[in-house]
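testing teh design pipeline on a random one, pls ignore if ur not involved
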């Protein structure tokens, strides 16, 4: 049997507020305020009673909340309970890891979690209707691009209505699709992908390609731009607007590059008949690895995981398997003989094997080690 996988993708729409009528907007704002009050109250309750489970929270508070909000569709109370439980749970996790200084969890009310019963999406007319008080529906127009067309034949999941500080409204919708992927066998061709600050390197034992993303350079440039705004612009409103604008541009620019590389990798996979894309599972890094300077620089960037998600989604959509492997030693051991690697004296990205003398770019080494690991893992499961 061929493996079947469900893939999930979030589509983001900006709500068209240009011609929207006052009543609709004030209804939406009312929903946001009320939802924030409910979630905040639930978080408070969860916090004081030590409840992290959605079910327990729902049983404890649902009846009371329904009585106090009789005209609000009751599914809002369900999602508010789920939201509060998950906010409280992640607060505890962060607290445990010493990554949160706040005394209690808070909810700023920037989003409403919409259950399927709370919204209707019209993907032909690109409109959304949001359930409001007393069984009414508020319809909003969504700004959309050609890129949104691919969602039309996907299965609709839940959504979030997001209100930004600048007053803009967004709808984030989760879509699902089931894909059938080819079986991974011993003869499966793989492409391994390694990401560093300024390049994405991919390939296998037959070829290596390097895509210069210059991401580090782009990020540094935007960082300097933001620092200049911070020190030069006095008006707080204007400063926040400018910072937001450049942050958005930076993200957009980097994301566009990620999509381009993902497409290039998938085209190549199709051309050579590869059926597996391999990447490092950075969540599986152990403590010693985390301590190393090289890996630290890689993990702490927002981009790496983001790129993996884009590539994973696109790959599955095109019928390719995605496999994550433990990244331990992929950049410190020789892909040929397993000996230890040292920095070479011939250049800053070159590594040299102490045992067999192999000298190679460190990204190429990472790629070759990933490929090797795939076949090792496969052999291990075949002959235990
Ligand atoms: Zn070697």
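output:
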């Amino acid at each position: 049997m061929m493996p079947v996988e469900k893939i999930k993708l979030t589509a983001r729409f900006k709500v068209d507020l240009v011609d929207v009528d006052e009543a609709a907007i004030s209804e939406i704002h009312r929903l946001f305020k009320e939802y924030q009050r409910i979630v905040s109250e639930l978080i408070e309750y969860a916090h004081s009673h030590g409840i992290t489970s959605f079910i327990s929270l729902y049983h404890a508070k649902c009846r009371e909340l329904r009585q106090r909000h009789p005209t609000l569709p009751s599914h809002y109370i369900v999602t508010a309970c789920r939201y509060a439980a998950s906010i409280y749970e992640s607060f505890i996790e962060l607290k445990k890891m010493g990554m949160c200084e706040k005394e209690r969890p808070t909810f700023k009310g920037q989003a409403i979690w919409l259950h399927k019963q709370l919204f209707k999406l019209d993907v032909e007319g690109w409109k959304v209707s949001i359930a409001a008080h007393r069984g009414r529906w508020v319809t909003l127009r969504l700004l959309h691009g050609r890129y949104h067309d691919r969602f039309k034949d996907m299965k609709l999941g839940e959504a979030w209505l997001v209100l930004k500080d600048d007053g803009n409204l967004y709808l984030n919708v989760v879509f699902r699709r089931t894909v059938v992927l080819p079986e991974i066998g011993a003869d499966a061709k793989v492409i391994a992908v390694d990401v560093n600050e300024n390049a994405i390197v991919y390939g296998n034992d037959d070829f290596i390609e390097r895509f210069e993303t210059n991401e580090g350079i782009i990020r540094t440039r935007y960082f300097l731009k933001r620092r200049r705004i911070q020190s030069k612009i006095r008006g707080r409103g204007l400063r926040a607007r400018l910072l937001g604008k450049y942050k958005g541009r930076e993200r957009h620019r980097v994301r566009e590059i990620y999509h381009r590389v993902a497409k290039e990798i998938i085209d190549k996979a199709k051309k050579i008949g590869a059926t597996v894309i391999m990447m490092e599972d950075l969540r599986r890094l152990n403590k010693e690895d985390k301590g190393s300077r090289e890996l630290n620089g890689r993990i702490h960037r927002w981009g790496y995981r983001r790129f993996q998600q884009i590539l994973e989604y696109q790959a599955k959509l095109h019928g390719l398997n995605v496999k994550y492997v433990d990244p331990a030693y992929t950049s410190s051991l020789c892909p040929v003989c397993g000996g230890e690697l040292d920095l070479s004296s011939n250049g800053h990205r070159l590594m040299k094997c102490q045992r067999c003398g192999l000298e190679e770019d460190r990204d190429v080494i990472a790629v070759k080690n990933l490929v090797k690991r795939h076949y090792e893992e496969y052999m291990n499961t075949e002959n235990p």
